[in-house]
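Aim 2, interim progress: modelling of the adenosine-5'-triphosphate-bound target.
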Amino acid sequence: MALLEVKDLKTYYYTLSGIVKAVDNVSFSLEKGEVLGIAGESGCGKSTLAWSLLKLVPPPGRIAGGKILVKDNDLTKMSDDEVRSKIRWKTISMIFQGAMNSLHPMYNVGEQLVEALRYHSSGEFDEEAALNKAAELLEDVGLSKDMLRRYPHELSGGQKQRVVIAMSLMADPEIVIADEPTTALDVIVQAQILNLFKKLRKEKDLSMIFITHDLSVIAEVSDKVAIMYAGKIVEYGTSEQVFLNPLHPYTQGLLKSIPKIRSKEKIEWIPGVPPGLANPPPGCRFHPRCPYAMDVCRREEPPMIEVEPGHYVACWLHSKR
Ligand SMILES: Nc1ncnc2c1ncn2[C@@H]1O[C@H](COP(=O)(O)OP(=O)(O)OP(=O)(O)O)[C@@H](O)[C@H]1O
Ligand code: SF4
Ligand SMILES: [Mg+2]
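Predicted structure of the complex, ligand included:
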């Protein structure tokens, strides 16, 4: 059985102006030591999916259906207290989107790393062991242990991101979810952080879910890729399958919009914007932007089908009606 298996997950925001179906029937699995990249445009539900996996969806959102199976536990059936004491940070931890800018300005790095562990511990807490662990992890992420006494305003962006990565590893998790961990960094620091993830993954045998709107980042680190559009996964497969043989017109559009320095190919972009998720288009949610849209696309939602072993796509171009 996979380390993490998500089946038909639905996470909705119950707002005054309607139900926002931010994650709608999403399924995927993650094996031990594997990196899954999740990509899609802003607002397609990537962060909501990540919060769901830790049962941290903010109100008015909640998990409305489906299963999140982690080592024989279904998180959707566990109480918040149980998830906090058994799963959060110990089995699955998270680097939140923008976390490096949310470090507490009044506490030094050591205090914040120790606090992350204290908050997620149940029972006795050994302060000294936690501080030693923090010093060890700072070295693992390429910082000196002198950083323990530094305050966030004394750190560069890259150093803050390394601290946040160390924080996510304090309780020796098996799965780390990283939500846009390189987005706010310049390209050189971005490359250093990606290399750090590759090193940590090998050294600690981590499984990771790497979330970004930037497909070139996913290509660097992921074994498997899920492409999300308007709350749904529209294509899913190994990195090779999705990058070398993209089948969904949305994936094809995303790949054409990546600048290529050595190629004379023009950059293209996908016209239009993603739909609001309170009232998405009927049928295939991508149809208003799709150059291949047919009548059936406007009426019926395409099923997710396996086109080759492990390669799935939800598009009428690849399904029999
Ligand atoms: N608290 C909330 N209340 C209502 N709707 C919300 C809330 N948070 C998010 N949403 C909606 O849920 C959808 C998915 O948002 P989410 O933040 O998960 O997307 P995302 O893919 O992470 O976007 P980004 O790339 O900008 O981080 C969006 O339509 C957003 O407007
Ligand atoms: S189902 Fe139709 S509209 Fe949707 S991506 Fe495929 S061809 Fe385009
Ligand atoms: Mg997000």
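The first strand starts at residue 4 and ends at 15. Residues 249 and 290 are 7 Å apart (CA to CA).
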